[in-house]
Design a protein that fits this description.
2 domains, seven-stranded parallel β-sheet, alpha/beta, Rossmann fold
Length: 381
């Protein structure tokens, strides 16, 4: 059977993160695929995106939406309702943490959704509101909107033929919220970009890396560094930076955004990296391990799949300063193998992801094609 003609969709292309890295690899696997999305801001994305065939919704022309898309969330279901995949493609491969799966496809087209997570703000709103520090009035005001979004989310999930989850954590959410089964394919990590350092090159500092937003719980690491007086280097920027700088002691250093080469060097020479938040997967945790260094991570979410406690790092719970301090003390009593940690990270490589995605799409398309003479509009896993 010939390779299927594939189209891609994604929530929005105005910020760059782990989900966008997945779309990049999709495009590497299917370089002729158009990318359907709500909005596209070339200035906010890597230069290669400007060469893609990107097809946007009516939201593309709304003033200010590229800088801050969140106020327009109630309009996204409508945007994707009117955004339709053109005839002539065999498969839509959608990348979705909220909206990308909602695009309309012809009845004879297979829809495979790579799910980063069901929309968190609709299904776990109390946690989302707490981490975003929403006031009581705002929480009450959005409840009718949330009900409509959950209904839309369930309805569009029914139109997907197959779900891929980026982790077992997301797999459980897909089952809980949508009543659907899924296959886990972990996201791609560019493990080849990282090089290990000799043991005599490893320095005394710990490192943190992420966007500086409240729910990442960098406050726990800063409080631990203040109490234990260890050097802590923080890579990244964000709206919580001023507040975090105010609480930081003399051993904490804010580096802001750094080049990839500098980030890789900092990873390879740190004692360990600290990840105090719950991530659905956690690409950064794997990157540090690809550089041969151990990870100290909160024992929830993707860390349970990427970190081997006592071998490639230390998992801690509860999510408190004392819990993290206990983990650091346990870490200091352990010995880690740089080679073993780096080898472990290779199972999450980009080449592995490309192979698994291509095989999944080809196999599901072959089965779907065999059913075309029967009922083809029934979703199944």
């Amino acid at each position: 059977m010939t390779e299927p003609r594939v189209a891609l969709s994604h929530d929005y292309l105005n910020q760059y993160g782990g989900a966008e890295r997945v779309v990049e690899v999709f495009h590497r696997v299917y370089p002729d695929a158009p990318v359907y999305t709500s909005i596209f801001d070339p200035d906010s994305m890597p230069p290669d995106y400007a060469t893609w065939d990107v097809r946007t919704s009516f939201l593309q022309h709304v003033p200010g939406v590229h800088r801050n898309h969140q106020p327009y969330l109630p309009l996204y279901p409508l945007a994707f309702k009117f955004l339709r995949v053109d005839e002539g493609y065999d498969v839509l491969l959608s990348s979705s943490s909220a909206w990308g799966k909602g695009i309309r496809v012809p009845p004879d087209m297979l829809h495979i959704c790579y799910c980063h997570s069901p929309m968190r703000f609709a299904w776990d709103f109390d946690h989302y509101a707490e981490r975003e520090r929403m006031d009581w009035v705002s929480r009450r005001a959005v409840q009718p909107i949330l009900r409509r979004l959950r209904n839309w989310d369930r309805a569009t999930a029914k139109r997907v033929h197959h779900f891929i989850a980026n982790s077992r954590t997301v797999q459980k959410r897909i089952a809980e919220y949508w009543g659907r089964t899924s296959t886990v394919i972990h996201p791609p990590v560019d493990t080849e970009s990282f090089r290990t350092a000799r043991q005599d090159q490893v320095e005394e500092y710990f490192v943190l890396v992420s966007r500086l937003v409240p729910y990442k719980r960098f406050d726990l690491a800063i409080e631990a560094a203040n109490e234990l007086a260890f050097p802590l280097k923080i890579i990244g920027d964000g709206r919580a930076r001023a507040e975090l700088e105010e609480m930081a002691g003399p051993t904490v250093e804010f580096l802001g955004r750094v080049s990839d080469d500098e980030r890789n060097r900092l990873f390879a020479r740190c004692r360990a990296a600290i990840f105090p938040a719950e991530d659905d997967f956690g690409i950064g945790q794997v990157e540090v391990q690809a550089a041969g260094r151990p990870v100290i991570a909160f024992d929830r979410g993707g860390a349970q799949e990427t970190v081997i406690d006592g071998e490639t790092g230390v998992l801690f719970s509860p999510q408190t300063t004392d819990g993290l301090i206990d983990a650091i003390r346990r870490f200091e009593a352990l010995t880690f193998s740089t080679e073993s940690i780096a080898w472990h990270a290779q199972q999450f490589s980009r080449d592995r992801f490309e192979r698994e995605i291509r095989e999944f799409v080809s196999e599901r398309f072959a089965a779907f094609s065999g059913l075309r003479s029967g009922t083809v509009d029934q979703a199944g896993d």
